Amino acid sequence: MISSNDFRPGVSIVLDGSVWRVLEFLHVKPGKGSAFVRTKLKNVQSGSVMEKTFRAGETVPQATLEKSTMQHTYKEGDEFVFMDMETYEEGRLTRTQIGDRVKYLKEGMEAEVIKWGDQVLGVELPKSVVLEIVQTDPGLKGDTATGGSKPATLETGAIVMVPLFISQGERIKVDTQEDKYISRE
Questions:
Q1: Which residues are paired to 114 by β-bridges?
Q2: Listed range (39-43, 61-65, 141-145) with the worst mean pLDDT
Q3: Domain range spanning residue 43?
Q4: Which neighbouring-strand residues pair with 54?
Q5: C-alpha dihedral (89, 87, 115, 177), degrees to nearest 10
Q6: Of the residues 90, 109, 124, which one is the last residue of a structural domain?
Q7: Do 174 and 133 share a domain, yes or no?
Q8: Containing H/E element for 92?
Q9: Does residue 167 contact residue 134 with C-beta atoms inside 8 Å?
Q10: Which residues pair with 40 in a beta bridge?
C-alpha cells in the first residue's frame, strides 16, 4: 500500500484491477476543508489517461512491476519470440503487447520486458538504436547538413526523417522515444 502523500511521477498503483502510472500530481491544501491530492494517471495496459482526486493520506495498493532483460530472438507469424537472459526461457509477445516501438525491434536486440504478475504490460527498448538505411532518395550535389531532411526506410521497416546528405546503406543512430535521427554510425 502507498499513501497518496507519497505519489510521484512514475509511481504505479492498482485501481479497479488495472495498473495506472502517476504522470502528474498536485498536493492541494485549501483554506477550508481537508487536503487532497489531484493526480493525472495513465493506464499502463490501454494507454488511456484520467484525472483522479485522492484524500490526503488515503492509501491505495502499489503495483509491483518486474523488469527482466530479454533478447528478441526471432519473429514467428504475428508473435515476437523473446528469450530471458537469466533463465533462457522463451516467451512470446504480440505486436500490441510491445506497442508502437515494435518498428525499431531487431533480432538479437535486448529489451526490458515489464510484467505485473504473469501479465506483460510492455517492452522498453534502448533509448537509441543503430540501424541500416535500406531505402532513401539519393543526395544531390550541394546538399548540406542544414539543408533539410528526407524520409528514409530502415532495416526494420521504420521510416524516419534524415538529413539530405545521408545515403542508402549507411548505418544511423535513431532515438526510439522521439522517432528522430541522432547521428551517423
A1: 67, 122
A2: 141-145
A3: 2-60
A4: 37
A5: -90
A6: 124
A7: yes
A8: strand 90-94
A9: no
A10: 24, 51
Q: Distance (Å, rounded) from C-alpha 131 to C-alpha 104?
A: 8
Number of domains the chain is built from: 3
Locate 165 and state its grid cell.
546528405
Query: Residue 5 has which C-alpha cell?
Result: 502523500
Same domain, 40 and 78: no
DSSP string of 48-60, one letter each residue: -EEEEEEETT-EE
Ordered alpha helix ranges (H), the chain: 95-98
Q: Please report, as a single letter, which amino acid is at residue 131.
A: L
Give every CB contact of residue 35 below 8 A, 6+ residues apart in sequence. Answer: 27, 28, 29, 55, 56
pLDDT in tens, 127-183: 899 999 999 888 665 555 556 788 999 998 889 999 888 888 999 999 988 888 999
Is residue 93 located within the same domain as residue 139?
no
Q: Are residues 99 and 133 located together in one domain of the fold? A: no
Residue that is last in its domain, among 60, 76, 92 = 60
Give the closest residue to 62 by CA, choosing from 3, 138, 139. Answer: 3
Helices (H), 44-134: 95-98
Give the CATH number for residue 160: 2.40.50.140
pTM for the model stands at: 0.69
**Same domain for 71 and 87?**
yes
